[in-house]
Amino acid sequence: MKANLSRRVFLSAAAAAPFAITRAADKPKEQVRLAVIGVADRGAANLAGVAKENIVAICEIDEPRAAKAREQFPQAQFFTDYRKMYDKVQKDIDAVVISTPDHSHCLPALIAMNMKKHVYCEKPLARTIYEVRMMKAAAKKQGVLTQMGTQIHAGANYRRVVEIIKSGKLGKIQKVHVWCSRRPDMGRIVKPVAKLKFDTDLWCGPRPTEFYYANHMNWPHFHWRWWWDFGGGVHADMGCHYTDLAHWALDLGAPSTISAQGEAIPNADNEVPNTMRVDYTYPAIPGRDTIELSWYHGVPGPSLDNTVRYPGYNDGVLFVGEKAKLVSSYSKYQLFPDAFAKDFQAPEKTVPDSLGHHLEWLESIRGNGKPLCHFDYAGTLSESVLLGNVAYRSGKKLTWDTKTGTLTNGEEAKEFLGQEPRKGWEYPKV
Known about the structure:
Structural class: alpha/beta
Number of strands: 15
CATH topology of the domain at 3-153 and 356-375: Rossmann fold
Number of helices: 12
CATH superfamily of the domain at 3-153 and 356-375: NAD(P)-binding Rossmann-like Domain
Oligomer: single chain
């Protein structure tokens, strides 16, 4: 990324004001007019989440995978290239839902926001930190309503945990551990095992790379995430879901230092790690001390050597307070020690229950309320997660200045912050 471009984008993103509802696109009378990019797998779930709206267009690069969506929405125009879709329907839509692989989040989102269309985009917000910050800056500049697809943010359990942490009942939080037991499912790149039914050059999009072939039946529609060229491994895939709880409850913002270690995938050539630990430091803010947070994946508890377990929580978030501990999964939480838990009284309910993650966004477009995972919040969350991958790839403990979007050490790590898109896939100006 050119220095002048990255600095301009980073400074613009850093100056983002607190989120407020704006009326960028014309307010729809009833249904929101939508274009949906990616309608299979995760895309199918997102399509179901907005199915009661006016689905004007659907875009799916692998045409056979769009058969069910096309049958469900016969009135919707169909495309395999989102650039052609925008050319054709931009005047007929209010908003866009993006459920593509990570490397194809930024460009369709930027195009949409530059047309003043509201955007729902899957997590992480983008493949690289440069892209994330461009998306944050574009959302602020264009005044559009945005939501990142961290659906569990709408769950009641996360909201009750946030209330407990913010109440101070655990005492000052001294440490947070976050873990996910999942590991990559990947092997060596091999010769093609089946004929593909889509344009692989179009699938690569902005990435200046040749298409990979891999020994998976669902390649590339799920397993793209195990190669740095397209995704960021388990950490990028699941980190936004789990660390979201800590970011929300503790107002973490962006980290100041990041270090990482991990174990490579057997028989894989310099790609995402099999297991991983990332240690973050989040600077103190008024009302909260410095927070140390550690992320682990590929293990069922907060230790890479499997020596620490919390029964019933193979994936979880552990808040260590001065008075007590709280461990949470998506749907439940538990307090320790037992004596504290026995006498515990939950704080007053202060975080309203959600209408639903998609509905929060859709209702905000109709002028009702605001989405909580807007790109300003979600972008900082994604930035934090992706910095863990930057630290792992560099092998260095890094220091990060989020105001300027620069590493203050680790010159060799800067190449992992982002790359220029290939010719013909340039990002529009922000």
